[in-house]
Design goal:
The chain is of the alpha+beta class. The chain folds into two domains: about 20-225, H-NOX domain; about 245-350, Homeodomain-like (Arc Repressor Mutant, subunit A, Orthogonal Bundle), CATH 1.10.10. It is about 55% helix and about 10% strand. Mean pLDDT is about 90; it is low at about 1-20. Helix 10 links the parallel strand 5 and strand 6. It has 18 helices and seven strands. It has helices at about 1-15, 30-35, 40-45, 50-55, 65-80, 85-90, 100-105, 110-120, 150-170, 190-195, 225-240, 245-260, 265-270, 275-285, 290-310, 315-320, 325-335, 340-350; strands at about 20-25, 60-65, 125-135, 135-145, 180, 200, 210-215.
Length: about 350
Amino acid sequence: MQDTNQYTGKLQSRSSKREGLVRVGPLTEIVNVLRKLGVNPEEVFEHFGLTTDQIEDTDFEIPYVTASQLLTRCAQSTHCPHFGLLVGIRARPSTLGIPGFLLQNASNVGAALRDLTENLDLHDQGGIPVFETRRNFSLLGYTIHHANVEGVEQIYDLSIAVGCNIMRSMCGEGWTPNKVLLSRHPPPDLTPYKQFYRAPLHFNMDRNSLMFSNHWLNHRIPTADALLHRYLEREADELHTQRQANIVDDTRRLMRTLMMTGNCTIRDIAGQFCMHERTLHRKLRAEGTSFQLELDAVRYDIARQLLTGSAMPITSIAETLNYSGVSALNRAFKRWTGYTPARWRSLNTTPI
């Protein structure tokens, strides 16, 4: 067991050294939701050393882990298992800052969603927007790449609701997705979800996404301003230039995205960076890690999220993580934790 604990410790310690930040942005609505549910916001924020003024400042940044803990405490304090949804319903695209303003001024929906995927890191360094186009439909989703995050179901509820508001801001308030895919357990009360999405709901899924018809991608955005869009692009490019690139963080983000498509090999990742596989191996070694270590860390994070946040069958989790079968996942998970996924789930799954 000692070796197992040491290995798990390596995975967790690597993540803790790279604490991402998130702009308060959509979280400003926490104040209104808490008050509506009869809870004093100041008492909740005080636990985290935060003030109401800070949470109401959309540009104020807090650690992603703190944001996750805040949402968890809010859900517990209000006894509301869909607290994140209520916050997301009230959040406008503009709360995302530059990424939100960019998509509102793109020429059409497809271009706007590409802007979102390329620039959301200016708002959020703990998760990634996922935009996939398939033969007959598209998916707009979100995946957490930060480790040791609490309240995963609250974050996903909030993020997918914001995604729906983004689509309605571009396509009209009457827009509805074909399906809503959520990895969480079905909450006790589905009414808020049904009223907001007005679409079929699917829980215990391997992703958190809105599914919609491809014809929406060519829909022109009525608020588009080409000159303003070019200005915002320059601003976003300058902000990206000012940020110090981190090959490890970038590799993990790509792994989270490409794992959903089943194309998460060293060749796939290196190709995204436009570099040779040997170059990527060398850059990761220089950071004290390796492709396999980072892949294990990403798989470990996703596995824990799906095991505790959903009732997704372990066979499906193994498939999502691109393992050859349950036995391969079992071996890996026992190496990380000392337990099989089924046993770990039984020990770590508790109601809200």
